[in-house]
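Quick question about two entries, pasted in order.
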Amino acid sequence: MNGYGNSVFLRTAWEVSSGVPPVNTVAPAITGTAQEGETVTCSTGTWTGTPTITFAYQWKRNGSNIGSATNSTYVLVTADVSQSITCQVTATNGSGSASATSNTITPIAAVDPDAQAFITAAAITDPTQQAAINTLVVDLKGYSVWTKMEALYPMVGGTASQHKFNLKNPLNTDAAFRLVFFGGVTHSSNGITFATNGYADTKWLPSANSTTSNVSGGAYSRTNLTADYALFGSLDLSFSGVCVFPKASVGNTYFSANNNLSDGNANFVTDTRGLFHVNKDSLTVTRLFRNGSSIRTATVSSTTPPFYAVYLGARNYAGTTQTYFNGNLAFAFLGDTLTLTEAANFYTAVQAFQTALSRQV
């Protein structure tokens, strides 16, 4: 009887000393904002097994260990942007060890402060639109053209209250060149569509914000029209100012950059979709771009910039609104002269922006 009892006692003691190794029942989880510069945290998950269990952490990028990233928290770096980040947790007790892998996060780039200011002012909540705005700002700065811009209208969000803001200075004031809409204007995720008598006042005066030899401006059209219309413009009584009104298939194409209207006797635009951009190269040279490429150069003397605000979707002819554009614009800008390289890079950035929003032409 004693022998039998001792046998039971010895077996129980052996079972207790051997213990049960860790087994994961709920996977670890990464929490926090998946954005460059932010700190994320990895939980242990839930485990069974004989106490006491200790935990070790290893953060991974695309399945490979990240150097000394072996704490429960990790600060996301530039190399992590758009990559697959996971955390492996290894549980250990006196009977063994086991590992479990967390959920995967894909960090986005840190938001540029200028992009964030616009996102906040315009109340942009869609992640795709937020990312597109941020990339646009980063690209323009990378191409060294951000400082040449005075007004940038990305036209994201889908409402008048969102479309009015100037990316360069997103304040709701005339001095910040926010748009004021008149007439037939509708708003959507594709930008601004102008109908009968519809236009937008930029509050940007060529006389105050440009010189006879330093000005550029453009607009991104998503509509192919043949009628006489202006993408944007400001002209004085002598038809001198900043203006582009291309016509496809029929009629003539005009453009101006602080000079009298150029090339009124020629039609050289076969499709009025894309980014049209007028540029003052020098006191005597005015250039028209389409999609980052120069398509026409005019040699014409500069004149005094007009004292009338630039309109989008029409031209401001000495205070009278004319040649309405009955179509869709998805971007516009006003600023200083761009070099040929800057113009090409500018278009690359704008087209990437439109592509990110699935509204490129």
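Here is the second entry:
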Amino acid sequence: MTVGDVYRALWRHKLFIVVLTLAVVAAAWVAVSRQQRIYTASSLIRIQQNVQNPNDLYGALETGGRLAQTYQQIVATTTIARRIASLLRGRVPYDGIVGNVSASQVDQLDLLTINAKSPDPTAAAEIANAAPQALRDFIRRTATLGDQIIPIQPATVPSVPSSPRPKVKLAIALLLGLIVNSVLALLIEIVGDRVYELEEFETLARAPVLGFVPNLELTTPTADPRPVGTSPRLEPVELGEAPTHG
């Protein structure tokens, strides 16, 4: 099967491909609309060490970068989640905090982005803003007083959910639907025994086609209600009166 044959086969089954693809997109839309919306709020902090000697400033920056990697793992622990729940005084339950807080280092620097997810956008912002204080309390309890948590940018209440992303999922559903349905159309073309092209028929028959009979739409003649052997009945014709001469 050449590339031209593939294109012609897809064009012959275009209605099949379009209908099934629309069905896949509609199913994806229904699935996305039923998913719960999740909002993500982010705050930015800096991990800094107390430096008394200016000559140690460069080393403190490198140490801060390594500490950011460490605190990135600490932020996601249950210890920080419990402390955040305590700081929020029950406004957000512990079950809504644990597993929904994460952190990521910014470009190998001593900066750390804290992300909080929640179905409630206000709760997500409160969690992200309480996390720096929770880290401070952790540092105080572990006696690592040389480390400082400095808030750089507080979290704001998100207005757009981070998930689900309907446009992305619908685009993926459309692409997958076109690919899968096109493959199905080609399989139908290969498995089927119908010949669509004259050249394909000559190849299969190994003989040239001298002529063909077009499709004719034949109509069934209507039956005559008169009995057999009777002649058609003539309807009487009314003639006008003959003119009189005086």
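Reply: Helices lie at 3-12, 14-34, 57-75, 78-87, 121-141, 166-191, 198-205. The longest strand covers residues 39-49. Hope that helps.
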